[in-house]
Design brief:
The chain is an alpha+beta fold. It contains 4 helices and 10 strands. Helices cover 24% and strands 38% of the residues. The radius of gyration is 20 Å and the shape is elongated.
Amino acid sequence: MNEQIRIVDREVLSDNWYILNKITFEYRKKNGQWVTQSREAYDRGNGATILLHNPDTDTVILTRQFRLPTFVNGNPDGMLIETCAGLLDNDSPEVAIRRETEEETGYRITDVTKVMEAYMSPGSVTEKLFFYTAHYSSDTERSSGGGIDEEEIDVLEIPLPKAMTMIRTGEIQDGKTIMLLQHVWINAKAESLFSPTIG
């Protein structure tokens, strides 16, 4: 535990969707002085995200769905192109991302590769996101996908070079998606540079 931080009070401001806490804490500054501060933290649990890549066709699987926060902050139609993602819901990240992949994209995958863990909005949201990649092909078993309950998710298969262009044009603006696309792009280029030449 950080000896420079002492939690004084925790007040639940809302638990309508997830939990919004107001946390009052004492913080010892570098000069030794203790100050009292309050911050709000939104707790929605931890999540996982995955990018499916077909190395033979150099295509990726992305999703598209309406995201209200982007709509109220300048996204004209509120639609966002993203990697498949979801909350852990008390599962391990690996179990959760396999479940989310089938629910959202329809692809049933077994082997996933962990890339990293990251706090995506640490100024106000507690969520830690676990990042994964996996391979898929035309032979990968599929169900319908498209999400569950009230979700309406479009499944997109896009050439990786086009997806990278879509980052530059602003067609892809989701942070986790950009991070995974760049990871796969860099690694795919590295593999092609160091793969043996036949003939």
